[in-house]
Amino acid sequence: MSRIFVLGAGQLGAMLHYSGLPLNLQVVPVDFDAEPIADLADSDLVTAEIERWPDTPVTRQLAAHPNFINAKVFGLMADRLSQKATLDELQIATSPWQSLERDTDVASLLEQLGSPCLLKRRTGGYDGRGQLWLDSPDTDLSDWQGAAIAEQKIPFDEEVSIIGVRNASGEMHFYPLALNLHLNGILRASLVGLERLQALQAEAEAMLGRLMKHLDYCGVMAMELFRVGDKLLVNEVAPRVHNSGHWSLSGSSVSQFEWHLRATAGLPLAPAQVKGACLMINLIGSERNEAWLSVPAVELWWYGKSVRPGRKLGHLNTCAAVPADLSTQVQALRPLLEEDYQSVLDWVEKRIS
Ligand code: AMP
Asked: What superfamily would CATH give domain 96-152?
């Protein structure tokens, strides 16, 4: 069987590798600074765990491979400007935005988008980095002009995401919407299985489905959305497996990683059978605590990275028959997680009760 090389060797690449094992798929995450692959064959497949990578000998080699799946999509989606333009072209609702040209001035931005509005770097920003709330007419924009977009501030009720998969012949499947908690731009928790979100499921699937079809996309794609009343607005799109789908490693008959590999390798997809309620808590900047493993029905995914404040180091997954039943695990985890997590657990308890 052909090998699947993954551009990038972070935790997403590692989880892709792990998910290939039961299928005997040889999934090889590749660090950007690795040596070029000496025996790369034309029959090998190439995918990516990230939408943007530095230009190095090995990334150049893999990105030029004839079987680099979705090769044209990455550039289009990695730049917020072309991503937003694509959404507009497809009439997929997204937060109103404007490009920051060399001559764009603060006054016109604030007039057109309202104050405050949010500047986002076109490329390279993630987890809330590369963003600036703009509210003062005196702000110096020189560092942002020609390199950013500005978005209207959306007074959203909550943040959700839809993750779907599409194969080369156009077959598509989707997970139920995840309710996401972001704090300071970083995803802290995802909750799946809330009955009230079912009313938005068809709309979310239509939005992501339209985009995947337009791009002739093959693999897993994630779309982060704002819920404003009963309407959805796209915040951003990731042409890859996504943090808000990590619950699927424990809560679905097929995880997002396996779905992505199946699509990439041309294997049957099948719809996902999902457990009643699933919760994922991101472990951010915390030392590993073996006691987490003592909680029944809690699974730890530890990425083996060095501990640094604000860094995603792992996640905890737990599932139950219905959302309210997750409360047992949440209460057992409380004393095992630092102060910083208590508001995250409060958020979860409020939503499942
Ligand atoms: P992003 O990196 O674009 O996902 O933004 C990180 C977080 O900033 C989001 O999860 C939201 O909580 C917030 N955010 C992003 N865009 C907007 C917006 N247009 N209006 C209000 N909040 C936003």
From this structure: ATP-grasp fold, A domain (3.30.1490.20)
